[in-house]
Amino acid sequence: MKAAVLRGVNQPLEIEDIQIDKPGPHEVLVKTAAVGVCHSDLHFQNGSYFYPMPTVLGHESAGVVEQVGSEVRYVAPGDHVITCLSVFCGHCPYCLGGHPSLCTKTDVRRAPDQPSRLSKGDEVVHQFLDLSSYAEQMLVHENALVKITPDIPLDRAALVGCGVTTGVGAVFRTAKVEAGSTVAVIGCGGVGLNAIQGAALAGAARIIAVDMLDSKLELAVKFGATDSVNASGGDAVAQVKELTGGGVDYSFEAIGLKATAEQAWEMLVNGGTATVIGMIPIGTKIELSGVDFLFEKKIQGCNMGSNQFRTDMPRYIDLYLQGRLNLDDLISRRIQLSQVNEAFAELEKGEVARSVIQMD
Questions:
Q1: How far apart are CA 269 and CA 272, in angstroms?
Q2: Given the DSSP bridges, would you call strands 248-253 and 123-124 parallel, antiparallel or unpaired?
């Protein structure tokens, strides 16, 4: 099969022919239909985060089941599915405690003495985040999938696999935004736009979009933003405080930078909560004003929207089919697998919400 292989930091992905193994007892072979090009993939390509190489990147995907292993009962050939990197084992303390997104991933990967799921001749090709979606097929554990209705187009469904689940989930599951509250979202890319529409669904009274591009701020209005702040035009924190008369109840950082994480903290009212969604580079230290803790301000991390994806994703699809969740405007352009490096370049410029790879 054809796949986009990363062989070194800051190297372009190469379209190569690689081999994919047959499903083991609890594995599923999926024909990839659509893959979102997410900023998280770029973090590994540019070295902000490390992953063994060579590897096939990609993790925000949807497709159709082709084959199932002997013990698989949840899906069957022909089922439409969304993948999720929050593959869960179902029996570790996190899974049993209701936090499967933090699963220790016991028994969901092949043992070292078993054949690699992906290979090229005698060379092991590492599977990225248990998925490796930039490929014509995916071989995954059955607990990396959720079965969905065929009523939703698979290019829209793919976005639910990461950006929607992360952004909307950050609002509902991680921060638990209350109706009538004030919200600021820093960064209006794919995840930030979903945090904005999540806040709108939660009934937030005021939702302030913060970005440096007017085009993204205009797009944010389509997703429910009531106000916008162009951070290139001055102190974003001061602008948010001026708009609200003191700050917001909830802030969301959806970029992954030290400066914006600190801004998310600084724009809170007393008792407010800042949620950092973005992937801040490893080794980066965040500086906060210690006195703010006396006023019960809180800051927290967020992993994939604290999801319970087999419950959450079908709900998001229902909201889309009801016209209440906007997936259509998330797609900036549809491309072929061979154009993946172009999509990475656009991500670095910060000018797109999502490019979606559509497989032939």
A1: 5
A2: unpaired
Residue 183 CA: distances (Å) to CA of 94, 215, 223, 316? 29, 20, 14, 21
Give the whole-angstrom CA distance, residue 198 versus residue 192: 10
189 φ/ψ angles, rounded to the nearest 5 degrees: -85, -160
Q: What is the pLDDT of residues 142-157, one digit of tens each?
A: 999 999 999 999 999 9
Q: Are 313 and 148 in contact (CB under 8 A)?
A: yes
Distance CA 15, CA 329 (A): 28
Q: For the domain 2-148+327-358, what is the CATH code? A: 3.90.180.10
Q: CB–CB of 263/236 below 8 Å? A: yes
Cβ contact 72:33 at 8 Å = no
Confidence (pTM): 0.95
pLDDT mean across residues, the chain: 96
pLDDT confidence bin for 222, thresholds 50/70/90: very high
Identify the CATH assignment for 167-303 out of 3.30.479.30, 3.40.1280.10, 3.40.50.720, 3.40.50.261: 3.40.50.720
Instruction: Reply yes or no: is the peptide bond before residue 112 cis, omega within 30 of 0.
Output: no
Closest among 253, 277, 250, 273 to 263, alpha carbons compared: 253
What is the distance between the alpha carbons of residues 196 and 270, in angstroms, rounded to a whole number?
22
Cα 277 to Cα 174: distance, rounded to the nearest angstrom = 10
Structural domain spans, the chain:
2-148+327-358, 167-303
Name the token pair of 32: 């990839």
Cα separation of the two ends of the chain: 12
Q: Which of these, 83, 81, 235, 236, lies nearest to 148 by C-alpha position?
A: 81
Burial class (CB in 10 A: 0-12, 13-18, 19+), 199: buried
